[in-house]
Amino acid sequence: YFLNVLFECDRFKYKHNSSQLLKHPYTLKDVYAASYNSRLYSRPFIEYFEETPMMVAVLTYMGYGILTIFGYLRDFLRHWKIERCHIAREKEEQKDFVPLYQDFENFYTRNLYMRIRDNWNRPICSVPGAKMDLMERATYDYNWTFEYTGRVVQDVINLGSYNYLGFAENTGPCADSAAEVTMKYGVGVASTRQEIGNLDRHEEMEKQVARFLGVESAMAFGMGFATNSMNIPALVGKGCLILSDELNHASLVLGARLSGSTIRVFKHNNMQSLEKLLREAIVHGQPRTRRPWKKILIVVEGIYSMEGSIVRLPEVIALKKRYRAYLYLDEAHSIGALGPRGRGVVDYFGLDPCDVDVMMGTFTKSFGAAGGYIAGKRELIEYLRSHSHSAVYATSMSPPVVEQIITSMKCIMGEDGTTIGSERVQQLAENTVYFRKRLREMGFIIYGNNDSPVVPLMLYMPAKIGAFGREMLKRNIGVVVVGFPATPIIESRARFCISAGHSKNMLDQEERGAITNSLPVAGLFEWCWLLLASLFIPVSQQCNDL
């Protein structure tokens, strides 16, 4: 950690001088700053991904190495009953059975994850708005179990929920409409859409979604994850090729695997890598037989939820047309959160929705509801209605959830007679730019596109993951911290999700909370304090304060 402190202080000296910054060996790197095909963009497309410094990477690996050594030591103590073991195991009488729990697979969970488990699964007892209330928990067995203390931590600034436009609320037109529909239709439908679970509100919602996206037709599903995992197998199968971005969501990966198609992965947002795979697919065809692929499906996301990056959609569409492939676009995080009208990444780039063959998105984020949708040509939707497992076997969406979607979408489109929706879209864009700018000014390393409301702040070392989340909560700020295996082992991070409901004061309070030192220090104590503080906050701002 001392070496990390020295590196950060050295890096900070170059922060305010851009000419020196670009010459420094450990400085900011603009990945794909120059477009592969710049004429397709109306403005510069720049995303920031600073490479992990070698010194930090080595220290991070050392940290995981030490944790692993102590993990094996604790497993040894557990084996000889010296330390109590809480992990899931087969019963003694089942020891000759095929193992149900793989011991080594559980190693990371019991020895690393459990040490910082208190940073996740925190129960909230309020609306997940700009501020929320948390139920306080205590543990007396090192995070294996938790007990509620009865105390409620109130007015915690919520920087973890996907409530981009602030429609997840218990007051206002959306809540009132959902309550009214609940009184008329009830909560559950107790049937599938193909049987007797197809309500008039479902039909209206799907027409509303199609109008919102500017496509011919759309259909909705009760679960966002299943929208991907159950519909991709209905679209492609054996003899088809899926070209998937390396950072695609788990639901896309699962759907691709379930389809039985051949899967090839291209580098994240790298058009050279994608075009190389497309060329090879056209030239070589299927393995062994060399027959042409039945279909080639490119699968990408609008906003990547761990990186904060935006898909290079104009270039993807150009490649898709050139090589006659199909495009599947997952707009789970981008719909409602991008574009001047909140219509997603297609609106953000000013493209034609008809150029995207399969438009997918979720209602769980910008619309404050639940479920997902598939949109596109009418023939595509009619095919999925009879071939998708999610459409045929899943229970219909709950009526109040449907009404929440309809009302919030009308607000965004301005069909409610107000400007609430457009104002929230604009406010989210302003909050995003402001928050990212302020974090960079403070010396933090953040990833992604300037217009992305998903803001990853790099922590790197394993000790920082738990400490950062705990220290932020002490300052009444709720954040999401993420580490391996959700991210590369040397790229642990905190992920902020910005909302239109956040005020500038809230964002400033979060920024101050990330860098506030609670004790005055001087002389030799300055370095001692930096050494300890490096466990949970980037050091560049500490150097500035000192």
TrEMBL record:
GO terms for cellular component: endoplasmic reticulum membrane; serine palmitoyltransferase complex. CDD domains: KBL_like. It is an enzyme of class 2 (transferase). Gene3D superfamilies: Aspartate Aminotransferase, domain 1, Type I PLP-dependent aspartate aminotransferase-like (Major domain). Its cofactor is pyridoxal 5'-phosphate. Coiled coil: none annotated. It holds the Pfam family Aminotran_1_2. InterPro entries: Aminotrans_II_pyridoxalP_BS (IPR001917), Aminotransferase_I/II_large (IPR004839), AON_synthase_class-II (IPR050087), PyrdxlP-dep_Trfase (IPR015424), PyrdxlP-dep_Trfase_major (IPR015421), PyrdxlP-dep_Trfase_small (IPR015422). Its main location: endoplasmic reticulum. SUPFAM superfamilies: PLP-dependent transferases. This is serine C-palmitoyltransferase. It comes from Astatotilapia calliptera (Eastern happy).
